Amino acid sequence: RTDTVVAGAGSWMTRGVRRGDVVQLWGHAQAGNNGKWMRVVSVTATVITLPAGSLTLDAAADTSFSLIIAKTVVNGATPVERYFTVEEYNADIDQSMRFVDTKITQLEIACDPDANIVATVTFQGLDGDMLATGSSPNFTSPTFTTSLPLIMADGSIRINGVDYADLSSFKLTWTLGGSVPPTLGPTAVDVFLDNAQLSGSVVAMRSGDVNFLAFKNETQIDMHIVCSEASSVANPRPFTSFYIGNAVYDGNDGPIGGEGPLLETIPWRAGKDEGGSDRAATTMKIPSSA
Length: 290
Fold this sequence. Notes:
By secondary structure, the protein is an all-beta fold. The protein is built from one helix and 19 strands.
């Protein structure tokens, strides 16, 4: 088969593999299977299931290869408060706007066809100043990125055990609310966050009734979006992915009539994934090659 990694003994789950992870093989006797990042569709003690076509058919068995699990970020049971200083430097007038004691209150990820992935981060803080000429910039040696922008390399929604990859757009919003209550002093005491909420929308080409029935029946949905550098970059390409294991559709909207494919816009929302020991008990996990 081209979609499974089968263990002769031991347990993949004991080794830490979970649904939504991204893994790769190294040192396998079948050279064509090495070095490719592959998303984990499902996992049991002895079988890792990957998207169809991920592996070479009927590869030889091997006893000395390595399975690497990409580093993954999840939301912890106890949130850790982090504060940032944010600067906007206007080089032509040599002055900066500097905002202190800020927290990130929202993250938006937008994946559209033929376009780079766009991440929008919202900050909320306690105070801000305009720095004088000569005192700007505040951060004198920032590190500028030199890596390539990411594109959506693989996007799928899994409904009742089947992957549907006819997506044309994906949007994700992770919001923590955030409020700064007024006080009689010049600044508030803190930025207070709310419970995290994860929601978004997908645009997909309608090829049947699957998405509509999933909305009507409130079916639990897996979503896995993989963003990587362009295909011209040699494998293994740097990537960041987003996996949501417990989502439901909130609607299904499509135009009436018209030429070409019928595109349906589907809002969704997600909650903590508590579907079993093969899943990470989190709202969203972010595997990355970084």
